[in-house]
Amino acid sequence: MISQALLKEFKEKAGQENVFTEKADLVTYSYDAAVLEPVLPGVAIRPASGEALSQIVRLCNENKIPLTVRGAGTNLSGGTIPLRDGVVVLTNALTKILEINEADMYAVVQPGVVTAKLAAAVAAKGLFYPPDPGSQAVSTLGGNVAENAGGLRGLKYGVTRDYVMGIQFFDVNGEIVKTGSRTVKCATGYNLTGLLVGSEGTLGVFNEITLKLIPLPAHQKAMVAVFDNIDKASETVAAIIAHRIVPATLEFMDNFTIRAVEDYSHVGLPTDAAALLLIEVDGYPAQVEEDAEKVELLCRQKGATSIRVAEDAAERDSVWTARRSALSALAKLKPTVVLEDATVPRSRIPDMVRAMQDIAKEYNISIGTFGHAGDGNLHPTILTDRRDKAEWARVEAAIAAIFDKALSMGGTLSGEHGTGLAKSCFLEKETSAATIIYSRKIKTALDPNYILNPGKIIGR
Ligand SMILES: Cc1cc2nc3c(=O)[nH]c(=O)nc-3n(C[C@H](O)[C@H](O)[C@H](O)COP(=O)(O)OP(=O)(O)OC[C@H]3O[C@@H](n4cnc5c(N)ncnc54)[C@H](O)[C@@H]3O)c2cc1C
């Protein structure tokens, strides 16, 4: 329990109006986008400055109170489920874009800046921040860095990790640690940036993040290729990559997802298609035309029944808006939706798509599959009702089967959603017992009281 004396200190550091103890408020911070039991924290605190943030971290450590930082709470792995009676630290008052440096092409942001807001601000200056998780309209950059979030453009542009030049964060004592720099190259000290990206709030609390920007691509072309057979679509993905074409985006949707998305967003997707590929190439105009032609040809050779090329920016946007709504569209269909993230080497996409269909049949459950096929990162989405105990048991078994299948193909448990609570029990399957012991040694050295988001990634 958090004592009244400690609450008083929190209020002194963060301001009375930024400390929330009412149950009605705390319920909001008891869950995230993962399907896990909610846990009520003891207090939520919204520091409005780096100084206040550092003091809250220090107080939590001195009093051995577990602390979970929360951006928008959209993570899908239980990363922001707090400990009972612990502290939730909100970053939604730390929302300043501190600098956009056009000459050196970087931005410095506070952790609570919403991803799409930074992308729009830099685009207005002709610059590009590529990582675009489907949640970008609400997710925060702090959350993106802590999860090493990916997005629709991962295939060509990489993931959040590839854009983090440096982080200024608070260690468990509230002291400032600085990693990386604002230079293109930096070989000073340990690669602490690499350690902190994807650390899910377990090793430090970000205060400022320096992000790399690149020039905006001059031209884009988006198209939707329609297939009457799911195998043909997934084989086309492998063929495009094998032909050394790197589209900015290469997304897959099965029929189940197409129907849900069309019902939700009414953009004219062909609901009778077995599968769709949504493809965008970008770059200089001549290169874009050449790549688009090659992609169209490959799609036709592999059996696409039709290809619709977006006529203008509005049509292009509508395609991507529809794709980004896939999870929301599927989530409307059943009370519980479990979005998985297992990822395989790209050449194994056809095998993985087939495996997903087999698993759905074997466990008698509904799985809609969509995702970043070009990255090998599919999102099999299981629609269920957690209150149905028998079905839930089959869902849990199916999830384990999906992980086993991905690992057997040389894949990974998570392409972009992180380990959190949801996957920590599977970690050893992909790594080794020694890997977990090694990771726990790092955690123990940096956070001896285990107060920083305990239980996430490596358990306890
Ligand atoms: C509809 C939908 C679509 C999505 N699409 C994608 C996608 O395409 N790609 C993808 O990768 N993910 C996707 N996600 C998952 C999720 O949006 C990402 O993981 C995102 O990065 C989480 O950001 P957030 O601000 O919500 O962070 P939160 O969920 O609030 O937090 C995530 C983690 O970051 C930690 N954290 C937050 N701020 C800090 C900080 N200042 N210091 C230290 N740790 C911190 C938290 O403790 C937690 O462990 C999607 C989720 C939804 C609901």
Write the layout of secondary structure elements.
Elements: H1 4-14, E1 19-20, H2 23-28, E2 43-45, H3 50-62, E3 67-70, E4 87-90, E5 97-101, E6 106-109, H4 115-123, E7 127-128, H5 141-147, H6 154-157, E8 164-170, E9 176-180, H7 192-196, E10 205-212, E11 214-215, E12 219-227, H8 230-242, E13 249-254, H9 255-265, E14 275-283, H10 285-301, E15 306-309, H11 313-324, H12 326-331, E16 336-339, H13 349-363, E17 366-372, E18 377-384, H14 389-408, H15 427-430, H16 433-446
Parallel strand pairs: 2-4, 3-4
Antiparallel strand pairs: 1-2, 5-6, 6-10, 7-11, 8-9, 8-10, 12-14, 12-15, 13-14, 13-17, 16-18, 17-18
Helix pairs in contact: 1-3, 8-13, 13-14
The structure holds flavin-adenine dinucleotide.
Flavin-adenine dinucleotide (FAD) binds at residues 32-33, 68-76, 79-80, 91, 111, 133-135, 139-140, 142-144, 146-147, 149-151, 200-201, 205-206, 327-328, 416-417, 453, 456.
